[in-house]
Amino acid sequence: MKKIKLKMKRYVFPLAAGLVVAAGVSAQQQDSLLRRQMELERQFNPTLKDAVKISSLPALPEPAVRKPNVEYASWAGRTNPPMEIAIPRPASIMTEIPYSTERGYFFLNAGNYANVDGALSYRLVETDNDRLSVRVLHNSTNGDVKYVQQSDPATVTAYFMDNKGEAEYSHRFDASRLDVEASYLLSQFNYYGNTFGKNRIFDDEKQRLKVFHAKAGLKSAESEENRYRGIVDFKHFSSKFGSMLTEKGMAGNQLEAMAGMMKPLDGTDGQWGADAKVTGVFYGEPSDVKNYLLVNAAPFVLFDGMGWNARLGADVLLQFGENDMVRVAPNMGVTLMITEKSSLYANVKGGIDDNTYLNVMQESRYYKPGMVLKPSFTLVDVEAGVKMGELEGFRLDIFGGFRKTDDAHFPVMDQVLNTDPVTEWVANERLVPAYGNLSHSHIGGVIRWNIWSPLDVSFRLKKNFYTVKDARVGELEIDEAKAWNLPDLEADVRVVMQTSDEVKFTVDYYLASGRWSFFNGENVKMENINDLNAGVVYNITDAISLNVRAHNILSKKYDIWYGHPAQTFNILGGFTFQF
Q1: Has residue 348 got a pLDDT over 60?
Q2: Where are the beta strands (DSSP E) in 356-475?
Q3: What is the per-residue pLDDT for 440?
C-alpha cells in the first residue's frame, strides 16, 4: 500500500491531545510487564489470565510468545516457548498450588544455577466494592551455562535479577469499575552471548533497567446498554549504559491512551462502536533517536444471529517517527456454530507492531542497548479452523493460517566484518535485528482429553512454512534468507494427574525443530529444543503447600538465540504459605 507522507508538527499533537482527553474513561487491559511473572494472585478482572513466570522485561500488552507448558484456552494460539526458557526455569503457577486470594501468601522456590523465585502478596482491602492489594516479586539466576558451539572459554555466567513491587486498587461504582495500578521494576543482567573467543564489549558488566509504571482505567458494567471503556498507561524507563560502556543508556517515557464505546445497532441484535488508541514514546537518551507516535482508529460492527456471530471492522493507523505513513488493516471475524459444542471460525486481522524500546525488551533483554527497532506492518493475518467438542471430556481443534509482514525482525548475533589486519567475522555478546519481508503459513491441531477426571492430557502440533524476501543485517543484503530463530515444527504435550486431594503431578514437553540463525556470513542450523519438565505439588494443609519441579530433564543443550545457551537439567523446590 502506498505510504502517505504527513507532517509531524501539523497533525501529531492535535491528534494526540484529542485521544488523551478521550481516554479519561479507560478499561482494564492485560498488563504483561513481566511475561513469565509469578502472578500468583488472580487478577480482579476475571477475564485476565494469570501470568506464569518472571523472565523478561517490561512491555505494553499483547505478548508475542507462549510458554511451553501452555494452557489450552486459546485453541489456535502459537506454541512458541518463552524466549528466555530455562534461564532460569523457575517453578510455575502451572503446578496449580492453591493460592489464597482472600488475604495473602508467601512463595519461595530455589534450586541449582542459583535460581530463586519468590513472591509476597497481601490484600489490604477486601469489600464488595473495593479491593487493594500489594505484591513484591523476585526472580534471579547466577549460574554458569555451557556454549553449544565450540568456544574458548566454553562456559559463561548467565546472570539476571528482577525485582518488582506493585499495588493494585479496584472500585466498583453502580454502572462502572475503576482500576488503578502502580509498580516499580529494577532489573539487572549481564550480556552473556558467545563471542567465540573475542574480547567482550561489556566484560560482564551488569546492565540495569528501571521502570516506573502507572495505569488507570474505567470500564462500564456489562449490563449497561451503552458501553464504554478506556485506559491511560504511563511508563518511565532508564538504563545504565548504551551500545558501549562509556555511552549513556536508553531513557524516556512511553504513553498509551485508549478510549472505546459500543452501542446497540438499531433494528438488529448487533452492536456498533469504535476504539481509538494512541501510543507515544519520547526518548531522552540517546538524543539522536527519534520520538515515535502511533494513532489507531478502529470502527467496527458486531452482528449476532441464530448460531453465528460476526465482526466487521478496520484499523486506520497513522505512524509518525522515522517514517511517517498511513496504513489501513482489516479487523474482521466470523464464528458459525455447527452444533452446540462444535463451530467453524475465521479471523482476518492486520496492523503495525511499533517495536518500541520496552516492547523489544519484552522479546529479549539481550538486544544491543541504545537502539530502537523498526516498526513492522502486517498487511494480513488470517486464522481459520474448526473446533469439535461433541464427546464429553474430549476436544479437537484443527486450524491453519497465513500472515504477511513487512520489516519483520529476527534476532541474530551482533557481528561485523573486520578487515584489519585480516578479513574475519567478529561476534559481540549481544543481539541485533535482521529484517525481511516475511510470509508465514501454518497448519496444526490441538487435542485435549480428560474423560477420566483425575487425568488431563493436552497435545498440540503445529507445522510452519516461511518465506523471507529482501532480508538484510545492517547494510548486508542476504539472498538465501531464513526465518531466523523460528521453528518449522512445534509439538507441545501436557499431562496433569490428580492422584488425591493433596497430591498432583504434572509433566510437560515442548519440541521446536528446524530453527536457523545467521552467523559468519551464512545460515547456520540450530539445535532443536527438546524440553521435558515434571513437577509435583503436595498440600500439607489448606495453608501450606510444598512443590518440586525439574526442568530440561533430558539435559539437552540448545540455544534460545544463537550463541545464548539455555540451562541444562535444573530443579527447583519450595513452599507456599497462605495467611
Answers
A1: yes
A2: 376-388, 394-418, 424-449, 455-473
A3: 97
Neighbouring residues of 261: CB distance < 8 A, sequence distance ≥ 6: 226, 227, 228, 229, 273, 274
CA 293 to chain centre: 21
Biggest CA-to-CA distance, the chain: 78
| Whole-number Å distance between alpha carbons of 13 and 293 | 10
Instruction: Write the CA distances from 468 to 391, 409, 527, integer angstroms.
Output: 41, 11, 21
Residues 6+ apart with CB under 8 A from 252: 236, 237, 281, 282, 283, 284, 285, 357
Q: Cα-atom radius of gyration of the chain, to the nearest Å?
A: 24
215-238 pLDDT tens trace: 999 999 887 788 999 999 999 999
**pLDDT given for residue 412 in this prediction:** 95
Show the 3-state SS of 202-244.
CCCCEEEEEEEEEEEEEEECCCCCCEEEEEEEEEEEEECECCC
Of 258, 253, 219, the closest CA to residue 236 belongs to 253
Confidence class of residue 423 from pLDDT cuts 50, 70 and 90? low
- Mean residue pLDDT of the chain comes to 82
CA distance 567 to 89: 8
Output the pTM of the full model. Answer: 0.80
Q: For the domain covering 8-578, report its CATH number.
A: 2.40.170.20
Provide the residue type at 127 as one letter: T
